[in-house]
Write a structure and sequence with these properties.
Blueprint: H1 9-25, H2 31-43, H3 51-62, H4 72-81, H5 86-96, H6 126-129, H7 132-137, H8 143-154
Helix pairs in contact: 2-3, 2-5
Length: 170
């Protein structure tokens, strides 16, 4: 006689509940994909969030429940349309941490969303990042080079701030 631990009715109920929640909060996403995006966007969310809320979200995600914070589904949908998977999205944002924001005017840390004591959020900018997956996957650039090249290409879209006296006639 062998024990069958894989067919626990409680697990089946939890799985069905998680799928229902995923369908409600993540329309158009498979439940497993929604959970992966939840894990990534918890750490790289587009909007500022309270630390306590993120801790609760983290706890739910660890239990296999896909969570959607403000803007998460639209961010994941836009990134996915640009060729990102949750792993590629995480790679991009972890690579951005290695590049000082002062190195590029186009660096997204210049446009971080902050609010009081909340943890900051960094919006996903499709017009900036849409070529990144191709550079990384198809053209053979490593993550740092693909990120730096993308930021460099975007520099003209972010003009240097004018300094006092610049362009003024005497």
């Amino acid at each position: 006689m062998s024990a069958d631990f894989d067919n626990d009715p409680a697990d089946s109920h939890n799985d069905a509940e998680n799928r229902r929640r995923a369908a409600e909060q993540w329309p158009g996403f498979d439940p497993d994909e929604a959970l992966h995006w939840s894990k990534v966007l918890l750490h790289h969310s587009p909007d500022p969030q309270r630390a306590g809320i993120k801790a609760q979200m983290s706890s739910a995600i660890k239990r296999g429940i896909p969570i959607a914070g403000p803007g998460w589904v639209s961010t994941a949908d836009a990134a996915r349309s640009d060729g990102f998977t949750p792993v590629l999205y995480q790679t991009l944002f972890e690579t951005l941490r290695t590049i000082p924001k002062t190195a590029f005017r186009s660096h997204p840390w210049h446009r971080r969303n902050t609010h009081g004591t909340y943890l900051p959020g960094t919006p996903y900018e499709s017009e900036l990042w849409s070529d990144w997956p191709k550079l990384f996957l198809a053209e053979g650039f490593d993550a740092h080079a693909a990120t730096s090249l993308t930021l460099l290409r975007a520099e003209p879209k972010f003009p240097r701030p004018r300094t006092r006296g610049e362009g003024e006639s005497a």
